[in-house]
Specification:
mainly alpha; cytoskeletal anchor activity; 513 residues; INSC protein; INSC_LBD; ARM-like; 72% helix
Length: 513
């Protein structure tokens, strides 16, 4: 969606391309000539979208209508009746155009949809007429009494609009899934899966609709047919999108999706791209941010096979993207079940991950380092892990990660850098219960770096979570090597309660460093 700042005539010219003839006079009569300050960012559809996918055009139109309805409510609150009326006219036009456009490319519409379309159009017309009467009324008391009716009408319009969009999207999902299930054509199936993926990118609500209509079942059916092998990466990518919602996860469990994913990951005849996309689905369904993974009982049955395949994928990854997907899946699994950490130890995963970190073409972003240090942090609870990390020169890597900084200033990258700093400090704190690890960390000057992170907010990007982790690591190392701290550092960062040291550091000015 482009936000275009244009005058009223130009705006009308752009809108005209998407309006039917019967609405042009309505636009001419009601569109304001003057531009108010807040109207300069009015959302319109650029003409460059005239050749875009019909469904995407529908979604853009729906988004505009939804935005306009919100703005009408805001203007109504301020009693801006002129603006309310002109925006109501615009919504009326957009609604009619959306319905006409959809009926043009839609092959079939149900009776329920036709009824909803009529209800919405009639209510929009009523809404427009109502706001016009309000515009012509100068009696303040009368306007107050009419305002509640306008609010009710606005609510009804929004309700009908929401129901219509829900019905339209459900019907489109059904049409796409019908194509996937019934077509034996590779081209038609590929096109339908591509459209389904685009639909899933529109948000969680669309994913729920697709899942409820059997999307996960249909896509796993594709993944079980050898004749569609070339479509596996695209199909798995779509599954990863849909499985961000609970309905998708339930469907995955019902069709033994975990077993299918395990088969794909362990089948060496599949391409790296297929393995990577299967890893992406595993990463999605085991995400620690989701609250509905408890029912994945079949995952435990296949976990050893899956973890083994993912470690191999990390070891043989030909690009940073493949490594990121595989390591992200492993990182999530270590949260999902502690047994995974023991399996990783048996598979010599620490050595494999540490070696990958030395290849800047493979571990090439803070996001990848975040996954690696997450795995190390979760594995560090095991006593055997310490010797593995020392042998792989892992303490040096953890020290380097304490210096992780964003070079682009991108907020997402900066957040990833914070996580890398925090988790490397957590890993050091856990591993330093082993005297050999603590000694290696002291020799690599970890203590001065931890002190710097505690005392300098800019070094940790003002992150409180990094500060807490660094204080914990510093206190663990101070027990093992008390001579490594100056008295002022000991008195302020180690001796007090953790919360007192935390408050001291969060209030510290840069000039104190």
């Amino acid at each position: 969606m482009h936000l275009i700042q244009v005058d009223s005539v130009q705006r009308w010219m752009e809108d005209l391309k998407l309006m039917t003839d019967c609405e042009c006079m309505c636009i001419l009569q009601s569109k304001p000539i003057s531009i108010e300050k807040e109207e300069q960012n009015e959302l319109i559809l650029s003409s460059q979208y005239s050749t875009c996918d019909n469904l995407q055009l529908l979604l853009k139109r729906a988004w505009i209508i939804s935005t306009e309805l919100t703005r009408i409510a805001q203007k109504l609150e301020k009693n801006r009746w002129q603006r309310v009326h002109s925006m109501t006219v615009r919504v009326n036009c957009h609604v009619r155009s959306m319905i006409n456009e959809y009926n043009t490319f839609s092959r079939s519409s149900s009776e329920e949809m036709h009824q909803l379309e009529k209800l919405l159009v009639d209510k929009c017309s009523e809404f427009t007429a109502f706001t016009e009467r309000c515009l012509q009324t100068e009696d303040e008391e009368m306007l107050k009494s009419m305002k509640s009716c306008v609010n009710e009408t606005l609510t009804t319009v929004a309700q009908y609009f929401g129901q219509l969009i829900e019905l339209v999207l459900t019907q489109e999902a059904q049409n796409l899934l019908r194509q996937i299930e019934l077509s034996g054509s590779l081209y038609i199936t590929e096109s339908a899966i591509g459209s389904l993926f685009s639909l899933a990118q529109e948000g969680a609500h669309l994913c729920r609709i697709i899942a409820k209509e059997g999307g996960v079942v249909a896509l796993f059916k594709i993944c079980r047919q050898d004749c569609f092998r070339c479509l596996y990466p695209q199909t798995l990518r779509t599954l990863a999108s849909i499985c961000c919602v609970e309905e998708g996860m339930h469907q995955l469990e019902k069709v033994d999706g975990i077993l299918c994913l395990a088969d794909i990951l362990t089948d060496t005849s599949h391409s790296e791209a297929t393995h990577a996309e299967a890893a992406a689905v595993i990463a999605q369904i085991t995400s620690p941010h989701l609250t509905f993974t408890q029912h994945l009982s079949s995952f435990l049955e296949n976990m050893e096979e899956i973890v083994t395949a993912l470690v191999k994928l990390c070891q043989e990854a030909s690009s940073g993207e493949v490594f990121l997907l595989a390591s992200a899946a492993l990182a999530n699994i270590t949260f999902f079940d502690t047994m995974a950490c023991e399996i990783l130890l048996q598979l010599n995963a620490v050595k494999i991950l540490l070696e990958a970190c030395s290849d800047k073409h493979i571990v090439d972003t803070p996001y990848s380092r975040d996954q690696v240090v997450t795995i190390l942090a979760n594995m560090s609870v095991l006593d055997q892990c310490a010797s593995e990390i020392i042998q792989g020169n892992g303490i040096q890597l953890l020290m380097e990660m304490l210096f992780e900084r964003s070079s682009s200033g991108n907020p997402a990258e900066a957040a990833a850098c914070e996580r890398v700093q925090q988790k490397s400090a957590v890993t050091l704190a856990r591993l330093s219960r082993d005297p050999e690890v603590a000694e290696a960390a002291v020799k690599l000057s970890c203590i001065p770096r931890l002190i710097k992170l505690c005392r300098s907010p800019t070094e940790r990007n003002n992150s409180d979570s990094v500060l807490v982790a660094c204080l914990a690591a510093l206190r663990r190392l101070a027990v093992m090597s008390p001579d490594g701290l100056e008295d002022s550092d000991f008195q302020q960062l180690v001796k007090p309660r953790l919360v007192d040291s935390f408050l001291l550091c969060t209030n510290m000015e840069e000039s104190f460093v």
